[in-house]
């Protein structure tokens, strides 16, 4: 009965707010869209509702669908961090599930907060949590849908401050430099207290004063205070302070939580309407000590930190009050030093477990047995490359024998299907390396007796990694090699799932673009490859400049505005080691 009363009251409040919001923006939501929000709220556990009186209002926006955003433990963590302060009200917003968001914002019409149904313009701050480069399009579309100028310098005192963060922006914030007032570089936990302190009197301060104050927050990059000049060939000439900057130019240093025990990183809101709807998620470790030369997480979340076993078991005990399955999250979760004890302890509690990532060479009988007893019939392993030569070059350090041994271990405990993750287009890759993927997948299938699915993604070089200077493989090369691999696997009875090479190329531009790429993003009229090509043509720039160049090691890189904490000399040494192991072979652009 109480739930029915809640629904009736909530619907009335929500619909009235939506009506007012749509009158302001000249747009109307349908009753179906309002009821969708109602259903979501009714199915959530842990949602935070606050009165707005005298509070700093922050709209936390995930620039993708609700289903995707609520699968992000990072997004939920930031929601909890903000709402932990009594004088802050943080509400969530997502882009429309009904159709793709377009560059002009039409697909995100009626973008309102979930908790109170308020338009984004009502908030003092809009904070975007960005997990993927391809969501940059949706950041701009969301601002347009809210009636907020997407260009930072076109916003005035009447508009919210726009802040963004996420791993991709920590590595390279420049593609969104023209759109965001500030960009968080690093992990949220150590930044939130100083950030909120700088924002609290935002309404009473001139916008420029607020930006200068934000620039003093460790880990916060304010693009308007940095000027970039370019050589005639398009490369960066100089990074320096703008005339309005309160201090000389210095790279923004990445922030990270030194002691994870200070923060409980776990599911804040439980809902069935997400990929992990049947799980209580909790982070077991952060960072990775493996040092794979291609891996953004391996560099931008250093150093490796682990949570104490006893604390995790206590946290899991609390989570079991709401869900029977515990999801263990980490960049290399199976590398957790006490994973066998954790898995055994969870099983003794009666918990079913799932693990976000499995390393071929750190699988144990205890872990595999626990996963299978928890209902897992499919497990994923990531050899990354087909040949041992190429795996050594990328510092994966896993032999064929170890892959086979891991597959046989999984099969012995009843795993029926194995997903094998591979990349094509790695620096130094040859046709024989692609064929080696098919050979390894076949051997795994034959030796384990399990069904095998090969998941294939084009390699995308990322900023702040050892391969940040490497060119991306040309699109025709990727397409040809992917089709060759598909045919070879099909003949062997192995299914293939592959990411689009064309969209991977878009990701490649955004991953290592400079702030001029923001001009292209602003010209996008739809999330399509055709719109992408038109935007480049209109901008007078060329995407190949960002994709296919062998960048000299002494070139000033656009993302040098960020100090990742990893010495540049170390990255150069790793790059040379990676290319030396390839025998000098390189994939040239078409």
- The Rg value, from CA coordinates, equals 24 Å
Number of strands: 19
Instruction: State the low-pLDDT regions, or none.
Output: 1-11, 583-590
Structural class: alpha/beta
* Main β sheet profile: 6 strands, mixed
The proportion of residues forming helix, as a percent range, comes to 25-40%
Specify the number of helices. 21
- How does the overall form come out from the CA principal axes? globular
Number of domains: 3
Task: Please specify the SSE layout and strand pairing.
Blueprint (H helix, E strand, L loop, with lengths): L1 H24 L5 H13 L12 E7 L3 H4 L3 H11 L4 E7 L30 E5 L6 H10 L15 E5 L1 H5 L10 E3 L3 H12 L7 H8 L5 E2 L4 E5 L5 E6 L10 E2 L25 E5 L1 E2 L9 H5 L4 E2 L2 H11 L5 E5 L9 H10 L3 E4 L9 H9 L4 E7 L3 H6 L6 H13 L4 E8 L6 H18 L2 E8 L16 H17 L3 E4 L2 H11 L5 H6 L6 H11 L4 H4 L14 E2 L4 H13 L10
Parallel strand pairs: 1-2, 1-3, 3-4, 4-5, 9-19, 10-13, 13-14, 15-16, 16-17, 17-18
Antiparallel strand pairs: 5-6, 7-8, 11-12
Helix pairs in contact: 1-2, 10-11, 14-15, 15-16
